[in-house]
Design a protein that fits this description.
mainly alpha; 2 domains; single chain; Growth Hormone, Chain: A; globular
Length: 502
């Protein structure tokens, strides 16, 4: 060894304890900035929904174009997530995190300043692009920062609670901002989140490239991006067209073929975008499926219950958001209990299916709503049960989905979690919306559609149908996860354990 190398080695050895102390001291601050960034991305899926009527009136676009304000974000976000995750692995999580935050904030300002429909749709698509870079970088940072089992459980309970309750936070914040200020502030508010997260990330995070020796899989990127775009677009078209439309089944079929081709290519590529080792672990695969099913089922809670509270019970947007707070509180408490106490002791095979079963019971109970129902008796208890169930499902699944992943795959594994959640939400949106609409139409058959009481009851039929199907999703999740998860406590593969790089 040369004298220079010896000095460098001595210096590195001397720095190591201090570096470890620095990481230990600041990791909880890192959790805070990751949580803020994740909240910004998750709530943007719902915060704009409440503001849509005001935006439509202000900018003058029609009902047919309204869905694109939501769809543009979902399409860009879902189709680019795996690419964003791999970019974080190849070029560093810190730059991916910071660029994602800055770009997301810039797109939000552009959206808030929109003078027309095209400008707003473009801004929402750009939010999706930068969100696809930010979300997997944030989750992979969490995965590589917290490696101690107990601390990791606490960190993921917080992160999972944010991911699960973020939609409800979006409804509350969207209602408050729309009522108190203007619809544009549902977009401008992201700048506040972004400034805090960017400053924290700049100061606390260190640069490291865990997969610097790999190359970007361009054929795989094209295949998976086109495949995910087609799947999400196909399900989105099911809302505005029908399942028999070529714009629906044609894109779904194309998406299936492209994703199959992507899977085949990943087994042959020298530097695969999504290495098969990420998917082949049994508990991890079960966790990916858990996130997918949860994303599909939760849609029924947020969208249709929002309609019911506002249109049938006469709640304001702000009061509607407040109505979801008890569910959020229960979810967050249960997230702590399930992730830090129950799953480490009992294992996921009992806890996650049990959580799904509880959520299914809560959704089934929610179908008892009627025209003369009250919030405190027919909605609140059900929301508490659903929140408890989802709190036992979502946070542990997100932790297990990235547990034991090598640092070089942390970004793409995290991107897969986000992709599953986004695709699940798209499936839920399409299926529940069309099933609800069909239920309302069937109820009106043979009745007087001009009668207001009949119309109101038809809407109740549509909501309860959506709730029953959401209950079905959760019940299926209970069965599937019970069959897939291994018995006992989670077994870690030490050779694949994540490496801390700040």
């Amino acid at each position: 060894m040369s004298q220079t190398s010896a000095v460098e080695a001595t210096d590195a050895s001397a720095r190591r304890p201090q570096d470890t102390h620095d990481v230990s001291r600041k990791r909880w601050w890192i959790l805070g900035i990751i949580g803020i960034a994740q909240l910004m991305v998750v709530l943007d899926a719902t915060i704009v929904n409440i503001a849509l009527p005001s935006a439509q009136q202000d900018l003058g676009f029609n009902d047919g174009n309204r869905q694109w304000i939501v769809t543009a974000y979902a399409l860009a976000f879902a189709s680019l997530l795996l690419l964003g995750g791999r970019i974080a692995d190849l070029f560093g999580r810190k730059p991916a995190f910071l660029i994602g935050i800055a770009g997301f904030a810039g797109a939000s300002v552009l959206g808030g300043a929109s003078t027309g429909f095209g400008m707003l749709v473009t801004a929402r698509a750009l939010q999706g692009v930068f969100g696809a870079l930010l979300a997997p970088a944030a989750l992979s940072l969490l995965n590589t920062t917290f490696t101690d089992a107990k601390e990791r459980a606490k960190a993921f309970s917080v992160y999972g609670a944010i991911a699960g309750a973020g939609g409800a936070v979006g409804l509350l914040l969207g209602g408050l901002l729309t009522d108190a200020l203007d619809w544009r502030w549902t977009l401008y508010v992201n700048v506040v989140f972004a400034i805090v997260a960017f400053a924290g990330g700049w100061l606390l995070l260190g640069s490291h490239r865990d997969a610097a020796g790999s190359k970007l899989d361009l054929p795989g990127t094209v295949l998976v991006s086109a495949g995910l775009f087609s799947v999400v677009y196909g399900f989105s078209n099911a809302e505005t067209h029908d399942w028999g439309s070529p714009l629906t089944w044609g894109f779904l079929l194309a998406g299936g073929v492209l994703l199959a081709a992507f899977t085949w290519w990943q087994t042959r590529a020298a530097h695969p975008l999504l290495p098969m080792r990420v998917l082949l672990d049994r508990d991890r695969a079960a966790s990916f499926i858990t996130v997918l099913i949860t994303g599909a089922g939760m849609f029924g809670v947020f969208l249709f219950l929002t309609y019911y509270l506002q249109l049938n019970l006469g709640f304001s947007p702000t009061k509607t958001g407040v109505a979801f707070l008890p569910m959020m509180a229960t979810l967050m408490v249960m997230a702590q209990i399930s992730t830090t106490v129950l799953v480490p002791r009992v294992g996921p095979k009992i806890i996650i299916p049990g959580g799904f079963a509880v959520a299914a019971l809560g959704m089934a109970w929610l179908t008892g709503i009627g025209l003369d129902s009250g919030f405190s008796t027919h909605v609140l208890p059900q929301l508490l049960v659903i929140g408890a169930g989802l709190g036992a499902v979502m946070p542990p699944a997100m932790s297990l989905a990235t547990s034991g992943i090598g640092a070089e795959d942390a970004g793409v594994a995290s991107a897969t979690v986000n992709t599953m959640q986004q695709v699940g939400g798209s499936i839920g949106t399409a299926l529940l919306s069309t099933l609800a609409a069909s239920a309302a139409t069937s109820y009106l058959t043979g009745r007087n559609p001009a009668d207001k009481l009949t119309q109101a009851q038809a809407t109740i039929e549509s909501y309860t149908t959506a709730f029953w199907w959401s209950a079905g999703f959760f019940a299926a999740g209970a069965v599937i996860t019970f069959l897939l998860y291994r018995r006992g406590a989670v077994r870690q593969d030490a050779t694949a354990a994540p490496v801390v790089h700040m």
